[in-house]
Amino acid sequence: MVAIDNLNGERRRQGRIEVICGSMFSGKTEELIRRMKRAKFAKQKVEIFKPAIDVRYSEEDVVSHDQNAIHSTPINSSGNILLLASDIEVVGIDEAQFLDEGLVDICNQLANNGVRVIVAGLDMDFKGVPFGPIPALCAVADQVTKVHAICVKCGALAYVSHRLVDNDHRVMLGEQTEYEPLCRECYQKALSEETERKLSNS
Ligand SMILES: [Zn+2]
Question: What confidence category does residue 10 fall into, taking pLDDT thresholds of 50, 70 and 90?
Fold first, then answer.
């Protein structure tokens, strides 16, 4: 006789890592919130974590640019997630590029224990350099979704968030006035124009 229990009993939860990455204004947070809300409707226990550094709009809420908010817990290091996520079925992590490299191991541990982990973050910084733990997370993820903004110069798919203000700090939180999404071609053009301007000023 077929063991029906295997089908009807409580199905073992499938752990997995999903990464949503892309430039600024590409809708990463909106996509994270969409997946989290859908899990919540399915009566799953969900929790969003984000680095305490990201306090642009609200300490307690992951707020996307269209104000579509969902409650979240600020954390100082990736290790906090393991302590705070016991009993959670779907763990969301926003602005993950600002967290430490330990996040990769934490996500693997959670997924191995049956937790669905959804990570959203910038794939590259404003210079086009891979950002924090995101590249390694893409490597170990079960699913990677790369989302794109639209280039403000030509309307093609954007590739990078070009910083408009002259400041070399890597961690600078984005407002529409400080960054613009650009495609590869327009980004190269903007860089050479900036270099020309600096040379003519000196
Ligand atoms: Zn362009």
Answer: very low
